[in-house]
Structure formats: structure tokens, C-alpha cells
């Protein structure tokens, strides 16, 4: 199975210090605000000095700078400077601030799952790619995002053209070898994500909890409205 996302499919989240475009989130129906997802891919822009990144205690994060020059301060942990196409992996529970405007590609994965990003310079004559080991996990997802240029991804008898700013995600059995080749030009951001059935159950429990909280909120508003009548 594969999902292909264009600009009209992205979910925009506005913030005082910038905005984020949610490219893809899994499982379907999960919501970033409720922290009930297994993984999430997004592109974010931080415009203000000292912009604070959301703390996500149940997730690990990878931030890859697409453009700009920024310093990330993980308070009490470490400081790192990122130039274009450099990345940082860090625990989502860190209290992190960004200094310097940055356009960043973000991968968030629930702790227990595994996620990787890398940058590939494309060649028009195509290239076969090497892939990370799932380490025995049940499921695998492979993402292809062109920051610049465009290309064609070929896998399992299928092919998909991906243009700049578009996101392709391919879902696979984590215990089976995955093969794909890509031809094109420009800069490709590749993501590799591996997770288990247990991670899906945690996400499902989070969605049920979030649904219950929304119902309580609705009933609370109705109760207050009735008291005023």
C-alpha cells in the first residue's frame, strides 16, 4: 500500500513563531494535538529567535534543516548548530529552543519505534538504494520527499512521480526485504520508519482517550449552557 500527498492534502498548523505543514501522520485519523500517532512527517518554519519546540515526552524526533542556519539549544543537554541539509536526533522530552530562521523537515516516532532521515542527491540515470534493517519489527514505512527537483520512485512493479514539495509513503511488511530505485534530479529527503503491533495499540489507546476527553468537553459545555437557561 502507498499514500501520495500533495499540497492540498497537507494540514496547516499556525503558531505565533511560525507554522507547520503536516505532510503525513499515521494511523489515519490520528491527531498531533492529541499525541495519539505512531509517526508523523511535517515541514515547519520558525521565524522568531528563541522559538520553543513542542515537548513530546512519548516520542523521539529528527529535525533536518532544509534551509537556513540555526542553533538548537536542548536545555540541560547540549547545543548543536545546523546548516542546510544537516540533521539532529533528540528525545522529544527535551526542552528545546531554536535560534535563527529555519525551514525544517521533521520526523516524529513513538518511543519503541525507529525512524531515520537521510539526504540523497539524485541522478537522472537512476540509483538503487540501501535500506536500514527493521530489526525484526512488524511494519515498515518508506517516505520520499523532494525538497528540490523531482523524480520517479520504482518499487514492486509500481512507480510514482514525485515533484518538489510532494510526499510519497510506501507501507510494507517489516520482516520482508524492500527494494526500490529512484531516478530524477534535485534533493530527495528519504524517511525509513519501523514499528510493531504494540505501537499501534498504544496509538489506539491514545485515540480512545482523546475521544473520551472530547466527549467530556462537549457534555461539560452542554451542562453549563443548561444551567444558564
From TrEMBL:
InterPro entries with a match to the protein in the record: RmlC-like_jellyroll (IPR014710), RmlC_Cupin_sf (IPR011051), Uncharacterised_HutD/Ves (IPR010282)
Any Pfam family: HutD
Parts forming coiled coils: none
Listed name of the protein: HutD family protein
Organism from which the protein derives: Hominibacterium faecale
Top-level division of the source organism's lineage: Bacteria
